[in-house]
Design a protein that fits this description.
Blueprint lengths: L3 H8 L3 H8 L7 H13 L6 H8 L4 E8 L1 H5 L4 H13 L5 E8 L4 H11 L4 E5 L6 H9 L3 E4 L10 E4 L1 H14 L5 E6 L4 H16 L9 E4 L3 H12 L7 E4 L4 H11 L9 E6 L12 E4 L2 H14 L14 E4 L2 E3 L11
Parallel strand pairs: 1-2, 1-3, 3-4, 4-5, 5-11, 6-7, 6-8, 8-9, 9-10
Antiparallel strand pairs: 10-12
Helix pairs in contact: 1-2, 6-13, 7-8, 9-10, 11-12
């Protein structure tokens, strides 16, 4: 097995050029990079990653913090798997690894992240499930660790973020239902402090106002972000003295429990109550009647997330010159039969 010095001598190029080629640096032309990688494979060269990391003060790893455990683990969907694939597509261009950091819902996210920061587990972070006030943003800014947030927050800072178009989704839902004659439209929203539900509700209230419909806070029903939460939502809707004719959902798995709860009560979605779900999930595709919801390319979202993070990291800023990214990601309406109910028919 050859070392980097012997590899450089074999190729008759400098050790620095070999090192930059192996590290995926952009200042090495493609032909030289190819020669170096082919020679390294032929001669069995394996870099001492731990030694290199100690010398450079880097880990060559990017952390992706997600919530896990409890209802989330029991009601998992494919959202993050699709996003991970896109992020890793970007990181692999630069020989960086993606490290998933699952924080239990029983643990304080800020305390968990503080441990990761103290240990210098990764060079940069992607955080998700942002809250209205998110201590993680303050912590990462103070620690001067590059990061990007998947989701907006009321906690401000000079950091990039990407978020789904919750306001746009809310507006299209209300417009679609009002066009079918609905005036009493409920919302099934997460019961925690996650910021996305507040962003969605802002869009919902603005859409109601635009249509001259008074906002009724009793129609905002907060439940757990799970199938069981959707089942509870069905119970709460049916218990209302003046039952809504339609409901919009802020989390994809709520539709599963809501369908089950309505069916047990002898009601049919789309006939007895109009429903518009949130994101099109694999499980939701099998619902009957078909669910009206929204579609997104998770891989493309992940690619944008990875590139936007690297744009905020000095070693990669020249490759991704978009600067600090603040971007709302569009979602495509997928019409189904769950909101077929028309008032006045």
């Amino acid at each position: 097995m050859k070392g980097i010095k012997q590899l450089a001598e074999q190729l008759n190029i400098s050790i620095g050029t070999v090192s930059r080629a192996l590290n995926g640096r952009p200042d090495v032309n493609e032909e030289t990079r190819k020669r170096v990688l082919e020679a390294a494979a032929e001669f069995g060269y394996v870099p001492n990653q731990s030694g290199r990391s100690l010398r450079q003060g880097t880990t060559n790893a990017i952390g992706f913090m997600i919530e896990s455990g409890g209802g989330i683990a029991g009601n998992s969907d494919n959202f993050f798997f699709g996003v991970f694939d896109g992020v890793q597509n970007v990181l692999s261009r630069h020989h960086l690894d993606l490290v998933v950091l699952p924080c239990s819902t029983d643990e304080d996210p800020a305390a968990y992240l503080q441990r990761m920061v103290t240990r210098r587990t990764v060079d940069a972070m992607i955080i998700s499930a942002t809250h209205r006030r998110d201590e993680r943003i303050e912590l990462l800014n103070k620690a001067q660790i590059p990061f990007i947030a998947l989701g907006r927050s009321g906690t401000q800072g000079p950091h990039p973020w990407l978020d789904l178009d919750f306001e746009g989704v809310a507006n299209r839902c209300i417009d679609r239902l009002v066009a079918k004659g609905h005036r009493r439209i409920a919302v099934g929203a997460p019961s925690n402090d996650i910021n996305l539900s507040f962003v969605y509700l802002d869009g919902y209230m603005a859409a109601l106002k635009r249509h001259g419909i008074a906002f009724d806070p009793k129609l905002v029903l907060r439940v757990a972000s799970s199938e069981q939460g959707g089942y509870q939502l069905a119970h709460d809707l049916l218990a209302m003295e003046e039952r809504p004719t339609a409901v919009v959902l802020v989390y994809e798995l709520l539709a599963l429990g809501l369908y089950r709860g309505l069916n047990e009560a002898g009601l049919v979605p789309g006939r007895d109550m109009a429903i518009i779900g949130f994101r099109e999930s694999l499980v939701a595709k099998f619902l009957s009647p078909s669910l009206t919801c929204f579609r997104i390319s998770l891989r493309d979202l992940g690619i944008a997330l990875g590139e936007s993070l690297l744009a905020a990291m000095p070693p990669y800023a020249d490759i991704y010159p978009q600067g600090i990214v603040h971007r709302v990601w569009p979602m495509e309406l997928v019409p189904g039969e769950s909101d077929a109910m028309v008032i006045g028919d």
